[in-house]
Task: structure prediction
Amino acid sequence: NAEVVLPVTGFGEADGTTTNFEGRLTALRRQVSSVGSTREEWSIAADLALRFGADFGWLDARSVWAEVEELCGLYFDATWDAIAA
Result:
């Protein structure tokens, strides 16, 4: 049995990116509004970090991607806007 449940948004309910097994990036854009108290994964992770004394500084999915682009060599120069195009 689960002792902690994190109500994350489902496919089509959040902005973000995905990387396939070949390393190709695809933009995911919100298609429908989420129902109930679900939240995007990055938002839950940011709140958990704050509770443990860390501030990631994330405001939205775009700011999470900016950090991924900066820190992960595979994604250098893969900007949020370039992925969406």
About this structure: The longest helix spans residues 41-51.
